[in-house]
Write a structure and sequence with these properties.
The chain has 321 residues and is α/β, with parallel strands linked by helices. The chain has helices at 2-33, 43-46, 60-71, 83-96, 116-123, 150-178, 199-218, 255-264, 276-288, 291-320, and strands at 51-55, 75-80, 102-106, 128-133, 181-186, 224-229, 271-272. The chain has ten helices and seven strands.
Length: 321
């Protein structure tokens, strides 16, 4: 009976611990995704600067961040590689919010260190309140590591890793001098576990996750907010290879839906999926699925998505003929 009593006690402790974690997660989710929506902060005042810098801003999440920050009264410094798309986003912002200043910087983040002197010249003299490190790169469609060319591998590292560090070094001193600011680093739910066929991408996003959280701890008490975003599927070019991730659903968000939710969580959560259905996915990944099960699932899922997309494209081309 003594052994049975001990085992019963341990079982009750384990269940109580698990229930407590769920309750805390639910409370945190309500605070991040419900209560945060009730606030409507003046972003330039709150973060000590009129300017926001957004990298990778001509499509997807970055473009929507530029739009919504402009809507909230921020001037926007747009940084990306395609000049025509940069000018289109600049014109869009000017038409929707005529009082907002916009500047563009055309650089290719895959080129590495040489581009940052040019960016520094545009950053100089601006009171930057918000930096959105959004620029990212992924192989579309996904493929095995042995199929990567050397330049492709380096491009992933320069775009996904080096850009976050270099851009933060450019803007952080000014934020510290003013004692206010926000840095939003876009990682991914793909950083939770190693991902077959997306190995470089998931590893580089894990770097963003770790770097961002470390920086947040170092800057406690400084007045600087550092937020790690870990989105799941959002309808962008990065998900275009899979039909299931190219149309809105419960777990697949449009850029407007995602950024509206994620921007509301700024200052309310330092590390978040940004969108509550993705938060549910995050909980399942972190608390329910173990590492090996998740990797087996990805190893099966990604090739099947690629095959389905290739079949769809082939059928469309056949119809055109």
């Amino acid at each position: 009976m003594e052994l049975q009593d001990v085992l019963t006690f341990l079982g009750l402790v384990w269940v109580a611990r698990w229930v407590l974690y769920i309750v805390l997660d639910v409370v945190a989710a309500l605070r991040k995704f419900v209560l945060a929506r009730l606030s409507n902060d003046n972003l330039p005042i709150k973060y000590g600067g009129k300017w926001a810098v957004v990298t990778g801003c001509t499509d997807g999440i970055g473009k929507e961040y530029a739009r919504q920050l402009a809507q909230r009264g921020m001037n926007i410094l747009l940084i990306a590689r395609n000049k025509d798309k940069l000018n289109n986003v600049k014109q869009l912002i000017r038409e929707e919010w005529p009082g907002v200043e916009t500047e563009i910087v055309q650089v290719d983040f895959s080129h590495g260190r040489v581009i940052y002197q040019d960016i520094a010249r545009h950053v100089e003299g601006k009171n930057i309140g918000i930096l959105v490190n959004n620029v990212g790169m992924v192989s579309v469609p996904p493929k095995k590591f042995v199929e990567f060319r050397e330049d492709e591998a380096w491009s992933h590292i320069n775009v996904n890793v080096a850009s976050v560090v270099a851009m933060t070094q450019l803007v952080l001193p000014g934020m510290l001098a003013r004692g206010r600011g926000a840095i939003i680093n876009v990682a991914s739910l793909a950083s939770s576990y190693p991902m077959p066929y997306l190995g470089i991408y998931s590893a580089t996003k894990a770097f963003v996750d770790f770097f961002s959280e470390s920086l947040s701890w170092e800057l406690r008490g400084s007045g600087i907010t550092v937020q790690t975003l870990r989105p799941g599927a959002v309808i962008t070019h990065m998900t275009s290879y899979a039909e299931q991730m190219s149309k809105p659903s419960f777990f697949v968000a449009t850029t407007k839906t995602y950024v509206t939710s994620a921007l509301a969580t700024l200052s309310h959560s330092g590390r978040t999926s940004g969108y509550w259905p993705h938060g549910l996915q995050e909980f399942l990944i972190d608390e329910i699925f173990n590492r090996r099960f998740y990797m087996y699932m990805i190893e099966w899922l990604v090739p099947s998505l690629i095959k389905a997309e290739l079949k769809r494209v082939a059928e469309e081309q056949a119809k055109k003929k």
